[in-house]
Amino acid sequence: MSVWIWVLVLIAAIWAAQWGAEHLAKPLKKLRKQWGFSVAAGGALVGVAAASPEIGINIASAVTGVADIGLGTMFGSNVIAIPFMVVTAYIATRHLKKGNAGKDHEQHVKEHLLKVDHTAVTVQALPYLVIVAVVAILTVPAQWRGLQPTDGWIMLGVYLVYLAQALLRGRKEGEKVEWKKKEIYLAVAGLVALGLGAFFTVKATENIVAALGISKIVGGLFITAPMAALPEIFATWSVAKTGQITSAVTSVIGDHAVTMTVAFLPLALVTVPVKDLTLYITILSFAGLVGILYSAFIHWGGKNGRHGFNRWQVYTLGAVVPVYVGVMLFGVLQVFGGPSGEGANLFKVYNEDKNDYLEDGEFYKAVAKIGYFETWNQDGDASLSEEEWRAGISENLGGYKVNQIEELGEWDLNGDSQISEEEFREGLFEAVDKDGNRQISESEFVSLYREGIRSQKGK
Fold this sequence. Notes:
Elements: H1 3-35, H2 39-50, H3 52-63, H4 67-92, H5 105-110, E1 113-115, H6 119-139, H7 149-169, H8 181-212, H9 216-241, H10 245-259, H11 264-269, H12 277-301, E2 308-310, H13 311-332, H14 338-350, H15 360-370, H16 372-376, E3 383-384, H17 386-396, H18 407-411, E4 419-420, H19 421-432, H20 442-457
Antiparallel strand pairs: 1-2, 3-4
Helix pairs in contact: 1-2, 1-8, 1-9, 2-6, 2-7, 2-10, 3-4, 3-8, 4-9, 4-10, 4-12, 4-13, 6-7, 6-10, 6-12, 8-9, 9-10, 12-13, 14-20
């Protein structure tokens, strides 16, 4: 099937999932009013429905065996959506109808201020930062790196604590609401649409990344996550235009707190390894940066006791997105041109099973293509002498930390003071596998390729 057909399927699937989420959210919003929770506090509850597309995508990706798509979508949506929603709310509220404009709104416009209730920081933003930190603690350290079932249950518990603190802080007298059968039926239909939309979102992304020759996690980060954010942008615009500015700006934090906790569970239950540590840490760092800027800007943005975003703060938060994209594409993935682009292309060629990492056999073929052993083997015989090995470490692995005294014995597996080509490949594999997971990620391979090209140019 043509890739463009899958693009259309992706758009339709995300629309269906978002339609389902909207109709699931309406009963929860009524419950928020009935139980007397503030807008900021209720965001933690309504966020379950708003984040349900991401939850559904993660369930579908876990069940269908492509968990990396869900992982990329989960983290990518956090980095992209939060700045986008703030920028959207700012633009939407510069011109409001008189009936929708709140007290002092004209003054806020003159001051270029996007006024937000200060409770958004303590109730939503700071707990979100704690959630990001907990995710990092659970998934980054080498001893337990990756998403494990225990991590999923812990994150579900974290969400329940987050929900409880938000609701308890923002409680007031409840309102009387009217329940209609039509809303209940639409909520059930929404759940069905959500499930189908999530499944076809994952299926479409899987086929698009296969056609483009990119990894599944990158597809989740740069295809599914931005597409999933589009309906949220339209929703934020609509809410902000009604004058519900705090709701428009804070709901995105509540949504993504749910994404990082409840949506974390289905991926963790199937155990997802961190295949590319550099990529993973970069995404987590930007997710944390977005939360820090969001909190700081609201707290210090206003004057005379008011809180919110000044115009330059809105622009700064929005600028995080292109910086993030640039760092990911040029710094981490290194997808454009030169040795990095060549290395990425070579990685794709030798990643024969298309599982987004090189196993030892695939790695050995790629190393043979680069001609690494021949470069080190200066006298052209069948093995490396100790002198050739030490010279090779200095000249060809300058970007790696290799202890020349201790590591020689680890490369020389049979102890004959010579390093055969087989021993060389195994030793090189260990050196390049920086995170020690017995898999060579694309960024690890590209780093090796760049070292090889640099050393060859220097001769």
